[in-house]
Amino acid sequence: MKQRGLSTELIHRGEDAPVRADSVNVPIYETTTFLFESADEVRRYQEGTLDKYLYSRYANPTVVVTEQKIAALDRAEAALVFASGMAASSTLLLTFLNPGDELLCSAATYGGTFHLVNDVLTRFKIAVRFATIEELADPDRLIGSRTRMCWIESPINPTLRCLDIARVARACRERGVLSVLDNTFASPINQQPLALGVDLAMQSATKYLNGHSDVTGGAVSGSRELLQRVDMMRRLLGPVMDPQAAFALARGLKTLPVRMARHNASAEAAARFLEQDRRVIRVFYPGLSSHPDHEVARAQMSGFSGMVTFEVAGGLEGASRVFDRFQVIRRATSLGGVDSLVSLPVLTSHYNYGEEELGRAGVTAGMLRVSIGLEDEADLIEDLDQALG
Ligand code: PLP
Fold first, then answer.
1. Of 253, 274, 302, at which residue does a domain stop?
2. Could you list the residue range(s) of the whole structural domain that residue 361 is in?
3. Beta strands in 97-187 (DSSP E)
4. Residue nearest to atom 4 of ligand 1 (CA)
5. 204 Cβ closer than 6 Å to some ligand 1 atom
6. What is the pTM of this model?
7. Which of 197, 224, 253 is the last residue of a domain?
8. Is 108 in the same domain as 45?
9. Domains in the chain, number
């Protein structure tokens, strides 16, 4: 074969024939595009008779492996991953909602979701109807002729209130309304939205799914038919997950069951410690019988996850004093990672909310939210104890 120029050699050598390395893990396919042998191959790909990769914005082998793992977790026919939880939510909403449609949305939802539907979707003449947790207990009355989708979250931040998911899903199905659950706080290990009757499960993979506070991502699971439509929108909007992030997420997913078991156990121990402590006014943890939705949570969750919220006296000043004293639990927003993190809801997720809005969300200035990580349980409880002062 004719000797080619150095640049040609450097660019092509070794890359035009696939290497079979039998690696234990699927490698990071850090490529934007894929080779074709002939015009005939391209034609067969376009006609759907050749199963092959074309372009990484559409599909990439590392990303597809991660999606298969998430589908397995959610017991779903299919799953798609995205560059963030918000990318997953926005793509999903734009796939199924049209001008004139109404979205029924839980008022108790993640702040980013609230602003997306309230400030952005409404610009496209999509009406949004917010319903409280109490109203969603009787969902039949909330669904109107224009309602196309219902978006719920359970447990919700930071009070960890829970909705009767199966009840909402049933009401939606009977009226041909698509139901979506943001399952971020529970994770599929503790709660199976599709088995409860929800059409689509969405989650921020940034949290428990990845679990190490080092990947931003999102995921949607459901039937192949619905996911095909979400996939078409993802191709157009372009919020796909990068192969590097997908590789890291797939690695995190392998330990999700063992991580969740530890998150569940340590959080329950922390919640029980806080509940018996007189320096604490109130503890919010769905696994405690004192939680207003304990029975609902018990019926639909197999574990109560790693999030614990508690309230101390003295409003924001009192909560700040506790916050500043933590030594093991780290002061940072977000959740679901190996590191325990603490945040003050009124300075983070509910910053700039008025008194009335805070009241509606059940949030008070004296609340601290802790994401219990994988440190030793005794160290975490000792840290909570010393931080309370
Ligand atoms: N849903 C919930 C419940 C969340 O807590 C978050 C982020 O905190 C999101 C969605 C958005 O996810 P991301 O930050 O990955 O875009």
1. 253
2. 256-388
3. 102-106, 127-131, 147-153, 178-182
4. 110
5. yes
6. 0.96
7. 253
8. yes
9. 2
